[in-house]
From TrEMBL, chains A, B:
Pfam families noted in UniProt: Usp (PF00582)
Protein's recorded name: Universal stress protein A-like protein
Matches recorded under Gene3D superfamilies: HUPs
Alphabetized InterPro entries for the sequence: At3g01520-like_plant, Rossmann-like_a/b/a_fold, Universal_stress_UspA, UspA
Stretches of the chain forming a coiled coil according to its record: none
Gene: LOC104773395
Domain of life the protein comes from: Eukaryota
Every UspA domain range: 23-162
Organism: Camelina sativa
Amino acid sequence: MGSEPTKVMVAVNGSTIKEYPHPSISSKRAFEWTLEKIVRSNTSDFKILLLHVQVTDEDGFDDVDSVYASPDDFRSMRETNKAKGLHLLEFFVKKCHEIGVACEAWIKIGDPKDVICKEVTRVQPDFLVVGSRGLGRFQKVFVGTVSAFCVKHAECPVLTIKRNPDETPSDLADD
Amino acid sequence: MGSEPTKVMVAVNGSTIKEYPHPSISSKRAFEWTLEKIVRSNTSDFKILLLHVQVTDEDGFDDVDSVYASPDDFRSMRETNKAKGLHLLEFFVKKCHEIGVACEAWIKIGDPKDVICKEVTRVQPDFLVVGSRGLGRFQKVFVGTVSAFCVKHAECPVLTIKRNPDETPSDLADD
């Protein structure tokens, strides 16, 4: 029981239903649950590390009406995308400040499951929190699940938090 | 942030290496890690619920030299077994008392993964802690993994904690 705070890495991502800077149902739930049930009022005992992994290819599809005529256009798209990522992180950082728990937040680009596990190895949090959509076996084949991969491969304990039944959208793959 | 303590169910089992009432490497590690990193010194904010599931058939093999001549012999075997289970729980309850965190402990008989998920539904802890041997895909087919089943099926968040590399026995299935 040292005096160092427990470092909690929370992986957060954007919603597939609302527009991008909105947090996904599962990452919002995982984050809020962690504050309520683990951190509680002992804010000086914990530090929240917020990691958002951007999937570049997929996000490019947001801009279907855009015309890309020069390398600058792509740079500008990447910057817009980065701004949305920062806006997403702002939501979580604000909540941490409201309750007075220390936090850090950063963005990485790549395949979320791989990047999360690499960041765990690099940053060495005490544990990792991941939201889960609670998909069945058949759905997993098509949309993959980041949480199951992290439980298996992350080099730290992993807390998996499913969405509440009443928050679950009709298409389970949505979030 | 209500005043109700966070209820943490920890599934514990016996060692396959040392004699039965000794805790397994993975459940001892999961329990101690939870006290150190989650409960910390905030003992009044948490309540530990210790569940030990006994696998009757398997445990019967401990008594290969015994002769069973009457129903009473089986009853006595079951009672010896129960005593060992209580002895296992005593290890964990003692540690809780040492640091001053409230706890409850009980034994159930059956298939651990099913019983743990049923007890989660019945008791409704805030989250479940399970130790994991960190088995690969091939090994899982033969020995099964309780932790992966619980992450998928338990009706509460699940914290999966692997053994430390330096505690891992040469046969990964051992614990």
